[in-house]
Amino acid sequence: MATSIHETVLVGICDGVIDKKINTSYCTNKIGDRPDLLPIITLQYPICRLCQRGLSHVVQVYCPLAASPYHRTINVFACTNPQCCGKSESWIVLRSQCLDDDIKGRQHNKTTTITESAMSRTDWCDEADDWGMDDEEQANVAESSVQLPNDSVCEGTDVSSKFQDLCIDGGVDQQSAIQPTDVPIFQAFYISVMEETDLDGFHDTDHENELLREYEEREGVIVGETRSCAGGDAQEEYEKATVKHGDEVFTSFMKKISLCPEQVLRYSWSGSPLFITEPPSNVNQMVPFCGHCSSPRVFEFQLMPALVSLLSSAGTNLDISLEFGTVLVYTCRNSCWKSGSVVPVEEFLFVQPDPDQKLFK
């Protein structure tokens, strides 16, 4: 499917380790840790369909949709068993929703105020900018009462969902899923988010050039160093390179992410996925309709190769990891939710293996 010129892509980037003393919430975008449940949700911890082991929490994405009354969180889990590596059946994605009234009902019974690190709190509208706040400003933000606005999605964009990292003040009943003791817990990191079009000049190119040099050595091609991103012509040399293994899809993937190779997540609700290898010819038919309302599922986001190096076990000496190229997540177009439901809805994902694991390490 061709990418629309109006399609808005949001890029998630690792934004620091989450202090163990910090209480995250369902509206925190994060890597690893345990999932934070919406107030009404009860989660039976998922197990691997292949080996029956418990699945580790990989990412949590808070992604309410425009014009929807629901808070909405998506959690992705995966099996760390090496025998299950790279197989879609060893992953699961769960969507949870609840109304603001459900949250307010809990607030009256709680007195503890939830605060989060200011680095995780960003209102993703164009006019919002929490970068570069001094310590006093950060403290004021963390202590302030933040309400989820009806117009939290910026006008003038076609994407129907904006990542948000808001903390609802007033003592929301935070639930964390009880993870089995034998299931590895990945180190927790915040995910910060920005529009892909705003990445020009965002990062220096040293890391990118190092990756490109490694790529040239393995593939026997001359790509050339990255020039300034501000000119809009960065990495045009990719188009001139002939890849030794002939994988044009992989080359296109590398070119697309060259502006920000450290991205761990790409979000574009009802947008176009970025394949790392040639997808099956019937890829659209592979995505099943919603099992609850029979509506088509649409692409929502994907996990990127840079995430692999961040997935390590927290607080143990266990040598665990996940290996993948990209994980593509599809969700119900209507984001259907049955009134009174307390159980997450399983959505659809599939995994594409990384054709060159060493490239992103």
Describe the overall structure:
The structure is a single chain. Strands 12-6-5-4-2-8-1-9-10-11-13 form an 11-stranded antiparallel beta sheet. 12% of the residues lie in helices and 20% in strands. It has 5 helices and 13 strands. The protein is α+β, with helices and mostly antiparallel strands and 361 residues long. Mean pLDDT is 75; it is low at 1-5, 111-161, 164-172 and 225-245.
Percent of sequence in beta strands: 15-25%
Catalogue the unreliable spans: 1-5, 111-161, 164-172, 225-245
Question: How large is the radius of gyration?
Answer: 20 Å
Mean pLDDT: 75
Q: Give helix % range.
A: 10-25%
Q: What structural class is derived from the secondary structure elements?
A: alpha+beta
What is the CA-CA span between the terminal residues? 30 Å
- Give me the side-by-side strand order of the main sheet: 12-6-5-4-2-8-1-9-10-11-13
The biggest sheet, with number of strands, parallel, antiparallel or mixed sense and barrel status, is: 11 strands, antiparallel
The dominant shape is globular
Total number of helices: 5
